[in-house]
Write a structure and sequence with these properties.
Length: 399
């Protein structure tokens, strides 16, 4: 199967992604996945640093979210380590699930010699099974021994579930360094939209409140603009960790750009996907309205299946925009597929549909756009096509 991949790769090679100064990472197999695949990862700061998190809006939440909230509140937003396990969501597991996550954090904190509230944990995988706490705890020493400044890709592999490739990117802009990780191929939709995401930087934030505010602004322009299937996971968590080893530079722009690139990798690796789709919304009254219209188009099964069938069905795009609840004059709107103008001035342009069709056939990076003709605001939203493979992957997920 041909996968739609990013054209911009911020990492020097797919096999090595550097970490910002002051960070280490690692991963190993502890027995949760089959075939010796890595399933336990660790992010480690040399000293307690600023941290912030945002979580799923699902009413069902994984046990680790309660622990993260509690620990960040107690520590004043200071973080030393983040432990992540795959292949078990530790969700819908009751009080025992929370105690299991707390045990893992406590055991790691003892080994690090830090307060337990400076240790966070995230879990991802199938819902409803008890967390294999003993397997995790008995591998902590080995995990710490493997954790290094060169361990980013081990961590990226350890957090994967149905992902077909690890998602890790690095950027150095104006003296600031940032590395981002994400996992997720399905159950992806705002708010949150990443399943799990981690943004590490050597930049500085003023205090806990500013760190939280920065993360929310970054998420709104990156991870909250990606959708695969319209389903929001109960375990979605996005963390920002800032070591404050560098001052100056545009921290928000650096981290936002990194987040947007990671969001694109999630959409490109959507379960069963063959096309990464960018929904361009232009001519809106506000960025919020543009984003909303983009999300409605991006979650339309009719739009996504049309792309899978390489059908430039512009009527589905315009119809989805029309049901978004944002008023605009349809007769003045414009719709495009790739570089082909397929609807404008109140009428279709069938003569341009062959070019639109060729764009869908030849390009793995697909562009669908609509101009609402009511303002100057714009937004891009990222998604992927819906194929038969998506149904097969999710029909077989637990079996």
């Amino acid at each position: 199967m041909v996968r739609g991949l990013m054209t911009v790769v911020l990492a020097p090679t797919p096999d090595h992604v550097p970490l910002p100064p002051g960070f280490r990472a690692g991963g190993l197999h502890c027995g949760l996945k089959k075939n010796l695949q890595f399933d336990l990862g660790l992010l480690l700061a040399d000293q307690p640093i600023a941290g912030a998190a945002i979580y799923t809006q699902n009413q069902l939440v994984g046990a680790h979210i309660a622990i993260c909230r509690e620990h960040l509140a107690k520590s004043g937003g200071r973080v030393r380590a983040v432990l992540v396990n795959a292949r078990n969501a530790n969700c819908a597991t009751g009080r025992q699930g929370i105690e299991d996550a707390r045990t893992c954090c406590r055991e790691l904190a003892q080994r690090l010699g830090c307060p337990v509230e400076q240790v966070l944990m995230c879990s991802t995988g199938p819902i409803g099974a008890p967390l294999p706490t003993e397997r995790i705890v008995t591998h902590l020493d080995a995990l710490l021994a493997r954790t290094s400044q060169d361990g980013a890709m081990d961590f990226a592999r350890a957090i994967m579930t149905t992902d077909t490739y690890p998602k890790a990117l690095h950027a150095t802009i104006d003296g600031l360094t940032a590395t981002g990780f994400a996992k997720g191929s399905g159950m992806i939709h705002p708010n949150m939209a990443t399943m799990l995401g981690f943004l590490l930087t050597d930049g500085a934030t003023a205090d806990a409140a500013s760190t939280n505010a920065l993360l929310r602004r970054v998420a709104d322009r990156s991870f909250h603009r990606v959708t695969v299937d319209g389903d929001t996971s109960p375990n979605d968590t996005l963390l920002l960790l800032a070591s404050a080893k560098q001052h100056g530079g545009n921290l928000e722009q650096t981290v936002t750009d990194l987040g947007q690139q990671l969001a694109r990798t999630i959409a490109a690796d959507g379960e069963g996907a063959t096309r990464l789709i960018t929904i361009e919304v232009r001519g809106a009254r506000s960025e919020a309205e543009a984003t909303h219209v983009g999300r409605v188009i991006a979650t339309s099964p009719l739009v996504k299946t049309a792309v899978a069938g390489r059908d430039p069905n512009w009527g589905r795009i315009l119809s989805a925009a029309g049901r978004a609840g944002v008023a605009f004059p349809v007769e003045r709107a414009r719709v495009w597929v790739g570089n082909a103008d397929v609807y404008s001035s109140g009428r279709p342009h069938p003569e341009n549909e062959p070019a639109a069709h060729q764009h869908l056939v030849n390009d793995t990076l697909v562009v669908l756009g609509v101009d609402l003709a009511v303002g100057t605001a714009s937004a891009d939203v990222w998604t992927c096509d819906f194929t038969k493979d998506y149904v097969q992957i999710n029909a077989d997920y637990r079996s």
